[in-house]
Amino acid sequence: MAEINSWAIFVAALVPLIMGFIWYHPKLFGKAWMEEVGLTEEKMKGSMAGVFVFSVILSGLMALFIEFVTIHQFGALGMVGGDEMNANPSYHAFMKDYGMAYRSFGHGALHAFMAGFLFVFPMIAINAMFERKSWKYTMINTGYWVITITIMGGIICGWYAVDGFHWVTQK
Protein backbone atom coordinates (compact mmCIF):
# COMPACT_ATOMS: atom_id res chain seq x y z
CA MET A 1 0.00 0.00 0.00
CA ALA A 2 2.80 2.42 0.76
CA GLU A 3 4.83 2.37 -2.42
CA ILE A 4 6.95 5.16 -3.80
CA ASN A 5 5.12 6.65 -6.75
CA SER A 6 7.84 7.54 -9.26
CA TRP A 7 5.47 9.41 -11.58
CA ALA A 8 4.14 11.59 -8.77
CA ILE A 9 7.71 12.26 -7.58
CA PHE A 10 8.77 13.23 -11.11
CA VAL A 11 5.80 15.54 -11.72
CA ALA A 12 6.14 17.12 -8.26
CA ALA A 13 9.87 17.68 -8.94
CA LEU A 14 8.89 19.90 -11.88
CA VAL A 15 6.68 22.12 -9.70
CA PRO A 16 9.51 24.26 -8.22
CA LEU A 17 10.80 25.05 -11.70
CA ILE A 18 7.34 25.96 -13.01
CA MET A 19 6.49 27.97 -9.89
CA GLY A 20 9.88 29.68 -10.08
CA PHE A 21 9.13 30.90 -13.61
CA ILE A 22 5.88 32.39 -12.31
CA TRP A 23 6.90 33.61 -8.83
CA TYR A 24 10.22 35.16 -9.83
CA HIS A 25 8.92 36.67 -13.08
CA PRO A 26 9.65 40.41 -13.21
CA LYS A 27 5.92 41.17 -13.23
CA LEU A 28 5.36 39.33 -9.95
CA PHE A 29 8.27 39.22 -7.45
CA GLY A 30 11.27 38.98 -9.79
CA LYS A 31 12.31 42.62 -9.69
CA ALA A 32 11.88 42.90 -5.93
CA TRP A 33 13.79 39.65 -5.38
CA MET A 34 16.67 40.74 -7.65
CA GLU A 35 16.88 44.04 -5.78
CA GLU A 36 16.92 42.26 -2.40
CA VAL A 37 19.73 39.87 -3.40
CA GLY A 38 21.72 42.48 -5.35
CA LEU A 39 21.37 40.89 -8.78
CA THR A 40 21.13 42.72 -12.08
CA GLU A 41 19.93 41.63 -15.51
CA GLU A 42 23.60 41.59 -16.56
CA LYS A 43 24.60 39.21 -13.75
CA MET A 44 21.72 36.89 -14.66
CA LYS A 45 22.86 36.47 -18.27
CA GLY A 46 24.41 33.21 -19.34
CA SER A 47 23.41 29.59 -19.64
CA MET A 48 20.97 28.39 -17.02
CA ALA A 49 20.67 24.82 -18.34
CA GLY A 50 22.85 23.34 -15.60
CA VAL A 51 21.00 25.29 -12.93
CA PHE A 52 17.63 24.03 -14.22
CA VAL A 53 18.76 20.39 -14.48
CA PHE A 54 20.33 20.36 -11.03
CA SER A 55 17.28 22.14 -9.60
CA VAL A 56 15.00 19.39 -10.90
CA ILE A 57 17.29 16.73 -9.40
CA LEU A 58 17.29 18.48 -6.01
CA SER A 59 13.54 19.00 -6.28
CA GLY A 60 13.20 15.24 -6.80
CA LEU A 61 14.93 14.70 -3.45
CA MET A 62 12.51 17.15 -1.86
CA ALA A 63 9.54 15.41 -3.48
CA LEU A 64 10.74 12.06 -2.17
CA PHE A 65 10.89 13.49 1.36
CA ILE A 66 7.49 15.17 0.99
CA GLU A 67 6.03 11.76 0.10
CA PHE A 68 7.00 10.49 3.54
CA VAL A 69 5.60 13.63 5.20
CA THR A 70 2.22 13.52 3.44
CA ILE A 71 1.43 9.80 3.18
CA HIS A 72 0.74 8.29 6.60
CA GLN A 73 0.96 4.74 5.32
CA PHE A 74 4.75 5.13 5.21
CA GLY A 75 4.66 5.76 8.97
CA ALA A 76 2.71 2.57 9.53
CA LEU A 77 5.20 0.68 7.39
CA GLY A 78 8.04 2.22 9.39
CA MET A 79 6.47 0.90 12.59
CA VAL A 80 7.05 -2.66 11.35
CA GLY A 81 10.60 -1.97 10.28
CA GLY A 82 9.73 -1.49 6.63
CA ASP A 83 9.18 -5.22 6.10
CA GLU A 84 5.52 -5.74 5.27
CA MET A 85 6.02 -9.48 4.73
CA ASN A 86 7.18 -10.14 8.31
CA ALA A 87 4.67 -7.84 10.00
CA ASN A 88 2.20 -9.02 12.60
CA PRO A 89 -1.38 -9.73 11.52
CA SER A 90 -2.45 -6.53 13.29
CA TYR A 91 -0.47 -4.49 10.74
CA HIS A 92 -2.23 -6.20 7.84
CA ALA A 93 -5.62 -5.67 9.52
CA PHE A 94 -4.77 -1.99 10.04
CA MET A 95 -3.71 -1.57 6.42
CA LYS A 96 -6.86 -3.36 5.22
CA ASP A 97 -8.99 -0.88 7.18
CA TYR A 98 -6.93 2.29 6.65
CA GLY A 99 -4.63 1.55 3.71
CA MET A 100 -5.88 4.39 1.53
CA ALA A 101 -7.13 6.73 4.25
CA TYR A 102 -6.23 10.39 3.92
CA ARG A 103 -4.87 10.00 0.40
CA SER A 104 -6.10 13.16 -1.29
CA PHE A 105 -4.73 16.32 -2.84
CA GLY A 106 -6.13 18.41 0.02
CA HIS A 107 -4.66 16.25 2.75
CA GLY A 108 -1.22 16.21 1.13
CA ALA A 109 -1.38 19.95 0.54
CA LEU A 110 -2.29 20.53 4.20
CA HIS A 111 0.66 18.52 5.52
CA ALA A 112 3.07 20.06 3.04
CA PHE A 113 1.81 23.55 3.94
CA MET A 114 2.43 22.80 7.62
CA ALA A 115 5.95 21.61 6.78
CA GLY A 116 6.49 24.79 4.80
CA PHE A 117 5.23 27.11 7.49
CA LEU A 118 6.73 25.29 10.47
CA PHE A 119 10.03 24.14 8.94
CA VAL A 120 10.91 26.00 5.73
CA PHE A 121 9.89 29.48 6.93
CA PRO A 122 12.01 29.32 10.11
CA MET A 123 14.95 27.89 8.16
CA ILE A 124 14.84 30.67 5.55
CA ALA A 125 14.28 33.33 8.24
CA ILE A 126 17.25 32.14 10.32
CA ASN A 127 19.55 32.16 7.28
CA ALA A 128 18.25 35.57 6.22
CA MET A 129 18.88 37.06 9.67
CA PHE A 130 22.49 35.83 9.75
CA GLU A 131 23.00 36.98 6.15
CA ARG A 132 21.55 40.37 7.13
CA LYS A 133 18.79 40.07 4.53
CA SER A 134 15.52 41.94 4.83
CA TRP A 135 12.14 40.56 5.85
CA LYS A 136 11.02 41.35 2.32
CA TYR A 137 13.63 38.87 1.05
CA THR A 138 12.48 36.34 3.66
CA MET A 139 8.83 36.66 2.73
CA ILE A 140 9.44 36.48 -1.03
CA ASN A 141 11.42 33.25 -0.70
CA THR A 142 9.22 31.76 2.03
CA GLY A 143 6.07 32.48 0.05
CA TYR A 144 7.54 30.75 -2.98
CA TRP A 145 8.59 27.65 -1.07
CA VAL A 146 5.45 27.29 1.04
CA ILE A 147 3.17 27.53 -2.00
CA THR A 148 5.46 25.30 -4.05
CA ILE A 149 5.73 22.46 -1.54
CA THR A 150 2.02 22.74 -0.77
CA ILE A 151 1.31 21.96 -4.42
CA MET A 152 3.97 19.24 -4.43
CA GLY A 153 2.43 17.60 -1.35
CA GLY A 154 -1.02 17.66 -2.92
CA ILE A 155 0.21 16.00 -6.08
CA ILE A 156 2.21 13.36 -4.23
CA CYS A 157 -0.47 12.42 -1.70
CA GLY A 158 -3.40 12.55 -4.11
CA TRP A 159 -1.84 10.64 -6.96
CA TYR A 160 -1.92 6.93 -6.35
CA ALA A 161 -0.63 4.76 -9.17
CA VAL A 162 -1.16 1.01 -9.13
CA ASP A 163 -1.29 0.44 -12.84
CA GLY A 164 -1.21 3.97 -14.20
CA PHE A 165 -2.47 7.37 -13.23
CA HIS A 166 -5.23 7.38 -10.63
CA TRP A 167 -6.31 10.07 -8.23
CA VAL A 168 -7.55 8.85 -4.88
CA THR A 169 -10.85 10.42 -3.97
CA GLN A 170 -12.11 8.44 -0.97
CA LYS A 171 -11.73 9.47 2.69
Automatic annotation (TrEMBL):
Domain of life the protein comes from: Bacteria
Key words of the record: Membrane, Transmembrane, Transmembrane helix
One Pfam family hit: DUF1761
Keyword Membrane: yes
TM spans (from-to): 6-25, 46-66, 109-130, 142-162
Stated name of the protein: DUF1761 domain-containing protein
